[in-house]
Write a structure and sequence with these properties.
elongated, UDP N-Acetylglucosamine Acyltransferase, domain 1, 15-stranded parallel β-sheet, eleven-stranded mixed β-sheet, alpha/beta, about 250 residues, single chain
């Protein structure tokens, strides 16, 4: 099981542990519980992985990262789901002192592929991150937050529990997200408000100038209830708003 891996002799491994090949586990790291690790991951010194975790390949965990602690429920008392787990995809980076907590209400806390999680980030129980999510230093997600693909969170941003942030949203530094945010916009402030369409981010993702400009012109109409999308971008906005229909008035604030 350990062949083909570089595991420091001071590392402590206990429980139902599975590991692929080409992994590095640093000094004084502790891994315990039902932990499954794929191939070619780097787990730096003093990391702590516990309870039920599945990790893909080519991930990088820098020093003092903690994955798998019980979700913080305050006065309710912390809860551990026996069949709940943390699922981490491929090619993610977790910088120093990142915390990711085990699920409490959903079946998993999930992180997609190619996310970059900077130092001292807090990802609470039941959060769901898509692919390519960027979380700058000191960003905080309350329990159950969903972040769509390629969402980008500025330093110190905070997202209220059970709030959904759509794909390709850019969140300003120190923003307070207390309501669902539809896709493809830039938001900032405390509380947050929509500033404009994230035209630069959409162009970088390969969308045509025509579709991006059309979305920019029609975005407020979509928020006001226009349900006849003209392109793929508008279809995604309409789908998000339809799913969160009871919060539609908050989008206009």
């Amino acid at each position: 099981m350990m062949e083909g891996n570089n595991i420091h002799p001071t590392a402590i491994i206990d429980g139902n542990f599975e590991i692929g090949e080409g992994n590095t586990i640093g000094a004084y790291t502790v891994i315990k519980g039902n932990v499954k690790i794929g191939d070619n991951n780097y787990i730096g010194p003093h990391c702590f992985l516990q309870n039920n975790i599945e990790i893909g390949q080519y991930n990088r965990f820098e020093a003092f990262v903690a994955i798998g602690a019980l979700g913080e429920m305050g006065a309710k008392g912390d809860v551990f789901l026996e069949d709940g787990k943390i699922i981490i995809g491929d090619g993610n980076t977790f910088r120093e002192y990142v915390n990711v907590h085990s699920p409490v209400k959903r079946k998993d806390t999930r992180i997609g592929n190619k996310c970059y999680i900077m130092n001292k980030v807090y990802i609470a129980h039941d959060c769901q991150l898509g692919d390519g999510v960027m979380m700058s230093a000191l960003t905080k997600f309350g329990g159950g937050v969903t972040a769509g693909d390629n969402a980008n969170f500025g330093m110190g941003a905070a997202v209220h529990q059970w709030t959904d942030v759509g794909e390709n949203v850019m969140v300003g530094m120190n923003a307070a997200i207390n309501k669902h945010v539809p896709p493809f916009v830039i938001v900032a402030g405390s509380p947050c408000r929509i500033l404009r369409v994230n035209k630069v981010g959409l162009t970088r993702r390969g969308y045509t100038d025509h579709d991006v400009n059309q979305l920019n012109l029609r975005y407020m109409a979509l928020l006001e209830g226009d349900t006849k999308p003209h392109n793929e971008l508008e279809e995604k906005v309409v789908a998000f708003i339809t799913t969160h229909e009871k919060h539609l008035n908050k989008f206009k604030e």
